[in-house]
Amino acid sequence: MKTSDFYYDLPEELIAQHPLEDRSSSRLMVLDKTSGKTLDMHFKDLPSLLRKGDVLVINNTRVIPARLIGARKDTGSPVEILLLKRIDEKRWECIVRPGKKVRPGRKFVFIENELEAECEEVLPDGNRIVCFDFKGIWEEVLDRAGTMPLPPYIHEKLEDKERYQTVYSKTPGSAAAPTAGLHFTKDLLATIKEMGVIVCEVTLHVGLGTFRPVKVEDVTEHEMHSEWFCFDKNASDIIRKARAEGRRIISVGTTSTRVLETVASRDPEMMPCSGDTNIFIYPGYEFKCVNCLITNFHLPESTLIMLVSALAGKEHVLEAYKKAVELRYRFFSFGDAMFITDIKE
């Protein structure tokens, strides 16, 4: 299976640069995973596609202001640090730019007498272990010093940082948003719950590796990035009961999907657990938990379009993407959505 098999042509003007004023007014393409049939709707119509007893699984992670701009203490030359994964109270795995000049022992300052850092280790993949020295509460210091690391294809400034957060975000730790969830409003979620759909929360802290391109031609040779997840007792109880009763598990986003399929692959009983996952889902994978998926439109040749293709079939997905381009859907993080399901006549 080749990476180029997942290419499609996307006009640059269809890459959404800003969120819509009303989150739920985005368009929704419904894709039948069996037949490939599509329907054109709006996200606010989602309740009409759900059933009492469905389980809607959301990722409650919250994006942190993970981009820090500072200077080397010895030379004053600029440095950019992107926080990827927290190791302990002071140490993070980071991407550092320019990387060639950042060796162990280098020190940086971001806010004088409040936030400084030192590079401790260079990892095999080029990332760094950085130790931060800060005064006060870390989250408050980071909020003052850092900015939101928007995806590289978004070139316009985001006026309201909360628009790159889901309305249900609560567990800080992500460097990027679980963007399928950006379409939900509190009112829409309330409507969904009132009709008897069970909303289940999991956590996966999204890393910037989600934007890393697949650089190998053979898909199976790609090394997937690792992300931290938590599948707690409440989620375990809800999912186990729904599976036993044959009810649908509907994952909101590829991140929630990665949690559920990681847990199901490791433990068929799906008991509570947490840790790191580097699960790579591409066509040929047999889903063990997820029945349906709400997702955005993803980059060509990305691991995300491969995951979607594993659920709905590569031909179906690429044909649906072709239609989306023809119908002028908005693509990527601030773009429109797709619901992969079984369409009932």
Q: How are the elements arranged and paired?
A:
Layout: E1 27-32, E2 38-42, E3 55-59, E4 61-63, E5 67-72, E6 78-86, E7 91-97, E8 107-111, E9 115-122, E10 128-134, H1 138-145, E11 146-147, E12 171-174, H2 186-194, E13 198-204, E14 227-231, H3 233-244, E15 249-252, H4 253-266, E16 273-277, E17 292-296, H5 303-312, H6 314-326, E18 337-341
Parallel strand pairs: 1-18, 3-13, 3-15, 4-12, 15-17
Antiparallel strand pairs: 1-2, 5-6, 5-8, 5-11, 6-7, 7-10, 8-9, 9-10, 13-14, 14-16, 17-18
Could you characterize the architecture of this molecule?
The strands form three sheets. Strands 2-1-18-17-15-3-13-14-16 form a nine-stranded mixed sheet. The protein has a six-stranded antiparallel beta barrel with strand order 5-6-7-10-9-8. The protein is globular and about 65 Å long. The mean pLDDT is 95. It has 345 residues and is an alpha+beta fold. The protein has two domains: 3-63 and 159-341, QueA-like (3-Layer(aba) Sandwich), CATH 3.40.1780; 67-147, QueA-like (Thrombin, subunit H, Beta Barrel). The chain is built from six helices and 18 strands. It has helices spanning 138-145, 186-194, 233-244, 253-266, 303-312, 314-326, and strands spanning 27-32, 38-42, 55-59, 61-63, 67-72, 78-86, 91-97, 107-111, 115-122, 128-134, 146-147, 171-174, 198-204, 227-231, 249-252, 273-277, 292-296, 337-341.
From the coordinates shown, what is the CATH architecture of the largest domain? Answer: 3-Layer(aba) Sandwich
Strand order of the largest sheet: 2-1-18-17-15-3-13-14-16
Q: What amount of the residues lies in strands?
A: 25-35%
- Kindly report the name of the CATH homologous superfamily of the largest domain: QueA-like
Distinct helical segment count:
6
Largest sheet: 9 strands, mixed
